[in-house]
Amino acid sequence: MKPELQQQLYDKYPVLFSNRHKPARESCLHFGIETSDGWYDILADLCSAISTHEENIETRTKYNKKTDPSYESNYIPVTFDQVKEKFGGLRVYFSGGDEYIRGMVSMTESFSYMVCETCGEKGKPNRNGWIHTFCDKCREKYNVELLSR
After folding, report:
1. For the chain, how big is the Rg over CA atoms in Å?
2. Alpha-carbon distance values, 89 to 32, 53, 109, 120 (Å)
């Protein structure tokens, strides 16, 4: 993903992407978001949904603490460990969260198989060779580039 698109996500969701500051031996996010630009929107939507969910948990925790001062939330905020393409699909490895977050991540990963990883239009994975999820136009361009090598 282009550095400027990555930076937009880093700036808007600093906690989710906080592991990018760790050395490579501690977090693969050190290498950045390892996808093409086409999945920017679905990744941004996932980040937004996680952020909203965590804000709701924070609000509930504050309310519960008012009514029961001994209340403790066991929720651990999400931090991404790696975001990449694998076998033609988006993969988001993370720490923290809950079942709701795991469901959102799983749904986003599944959805990525229907979105062109290059341009963000409707796409589908190929059946042979190195698996990519492309629209027809991007697949044709990729095949032409591959043949010209």
Report:
1. 18
2. 17, 24, 6, 13
Closest to 81 measured CA to CA, from 96, 97, 93, 98: 93
Nearest in space to 77 (alpha carbons), one of 113, 44, 101:
101
Q: Indicate yes or no: pTM above 0.85.
A: yes
Beta strands 79-86; 89-95: pairing state: antiparallel
94 token code pair:
């993370």
Mean pLDDT of the chain: 95
Token representation of residue 82? 């790696």
For residue 14, the SS3 value is coil
* Residue 19 to residue 32: CA distance in whole angstroms: 10
Count, residues in the chain: 149
Helix H or strand E segment including 55? helix 40-67
